[in-house]
Amino acid sequence: MNADFDIFVIGGGINGCGIARDAAGRGLKVGLAEMNDLAGATSSASTKLFHGGLRYLEFFEFGLVKKALVEREVLLKNMPHISWPMRFVLPYHADMRFENDTPTSKLLSTVMPWMKGRRPAWLIRLGLFMYDNLGGRKILPGTHVVDLTKRETGAPLKSKFNKAYEYSDCWIEDSRLVVLNARDAEERGAQIMTRTKVVSAARVDGTWEIVTEHNGVQQTHTARALVNAGGPWVENIVRDVARLNTSEGVRLVRGSHIVTKKLFDHDKSYFFQGEDGRIIFAIPYETDFTLIGTTDAEHENLSEKPYATDEEQDYLCAFASQYFEKPVTRDDVVWTYSGVRPLYDDGAKSATAATRDYVLSLDDNGAPLLNIFGGKITTYRKLAENALKKLTPLVGGGDPWTADAPLPGGDFKVSARDQLVADLQTDYSFLDARWALRLIKGYGTDAKNILGDAKAATDLGQNFGATLTEAEVKWLMAKEYAVSAEDVVWRRSKLGLRLTKDQIAALDAFMTA
């Protein structure tokens, strides 16, 4: 029996779209269904970092950290428009105390009992040495010690912090990453179906028969293999959609973030350590704001949409206030967001200790079913490669290819971004520096395709505010699956921070007309 697809993917988050892109690039027929907008859940609610996970070293997750560190620069080179290097400042004070329940803390307390509750400077420096060298670095600079009394990064902090360690990681526009993977998959032949729910999936005559529903209309597809990349819904899909049993599951952990008015005037980020064993970041965000997060709270009920609770907001404000000279209060908060991370359930006793690594579970008792449990955004490309490593012996397909393949708009060197911005302003004199930078950071070399032959801002059509024009919106609708104003102002961009309710309503009316 000839199937419609070689591989059908359920879920339009980063793992699903990454797998669809990889598979399509290997010459396979690929279908993907997402019940809402792409990156509509977890994949647009991260802390927006490509990072190795410095704190995972305390849990002896060396393999996970190494994989992520190796991958950072691979990803950075392939998407320099939506990802860029970022320096992190880790303040240190000798009197700082920490919870002692991590494997590293327990070991330290046993070997050096007088150090109980402390994370000594040499231990941090050792961790950062490993962080610098586990994965190798060609682009990102290494760690160095900073005298906070002489650096601008010390100015916002309490005076007791006079020493810090500065290291490298990378920023990533998470929801744009998902959309560009989907777009590239489609350009390579995949069929991307958004706002399309998979109602049922069953093995019939050696293939999968999949029923989808879009706008009340049901359609049946067939596929040789099924990939369950449902994220938080992965168990539900196994049990309720495919009607199979599984002993594997996910631990649902809510990560909440707050966005505040700008708290400092430089472009570096902070890594803050807390007495509860957790860490948070304070990151320059969208030029005029600061992003603070994240929490780790159990999220029991998937039917309840995650949001940053009052308790979580107070926690993040209090945590940051332990470091900043000027206390961070709820009055500083301008926006919050929250997502549910589907961590593989490894039996850890706390959300913080649960592994961030992924598990790929193949059920080949008939037509293959690959279930994706866990994962983190930094390792999405490797996860996709490993998923195809399991599937290609069963359905065919070419060799791995994504390591050297830029995403749409990312065909330029990491060091060339500023020149791209300058060139865009030269070609389109009506752009100011801020507008040009936003376009390059969002679309890279595609920015010129959006602006076209425009000689003035008025040539770009209706102005929705905050430099968002009709030409850009039409591009997002035609190329990036945007259907509503929410898709545009909170996932394809973060212009929702700058637009009024009336402006967003006008945009929605335009898009649905």
Which short descriptors sum up this protein?
513 residues, alpha+beta, ten-stranded mixed β-sheet, 14 helices, 20 strands, 25% strand
What's the structural blueprint in terms of helices and strands?
Layout: E1 5-10, H1 14-25, E2 30-33, E3 49-50, H2 62-78, E4 83-92, H3 103-111, H4 121-133, E5 144-147, E6 163-172, H5 174-187, E7 191-193, E8 197-204, E9 207-214, E10 217-228, H6 234-241, E11 250-261, E12 269-273, E13 279-285, E14 289-293, E15 297-298, H7 310-321, E16 333-344, E17 358-363, E18 369-374, H8 380-395, H9 417-427, H10 433-443, H11 447-451, E19 463-465, E20 468-469, H12 470-479, H13 485-492, H14 501-512
Parallel strand pairs: 1-2, 1-10, 2-7, 4-12, 10-18
Antiparallel strand pairs: 3-6, 4-6, 5-6, 8-9, 9-10, 11-14, 11-15, 11-16, 12-13, 13-14, 17-18, 19-20
Helix pairs in contact: 1-5, 1-8, 9-10
Describe the model.
With 513 residues, the chain is α+β, with helices and mostly antiparallel strands. The chain is built from 14 helices and 20 strands. Strands 3, 4, 5, 6, 11, 12, 13, 14, 15 and 16 form a ten-stranded mixed beta sheet that branches. Strands 1, 2, 7, 8, 9, 10, 17 and 18 form an eight-stranded mixed beta sheet that branches. Helix 1 runs parallel beside helix 5 and helix 9 (417-427) packs across helix 10 (433-443). The longest helix has 17 residues, at 62-78. The relative contact order is 0.16. The mean pLDDT is 93.
Main sheet specs: 10 strands, mixed
User: Which residues sit in consecutive blocks of at least 5 with pLDDT less than 50?
Assistant: none
Number of strands: 20
Q: Tell me what portion of residues adopts beta-strand conformation.
A: 15-25%
The helix/strand class is alpha+beta
> What is the terminal-to-terminal distance?
42 Å
Helix share bin: 25-40%
- The rough form would be described as globular
Radius of gyration: 23 Å
Arithmetic mean of pLDDT? 93
Output the number of helix runs.
14
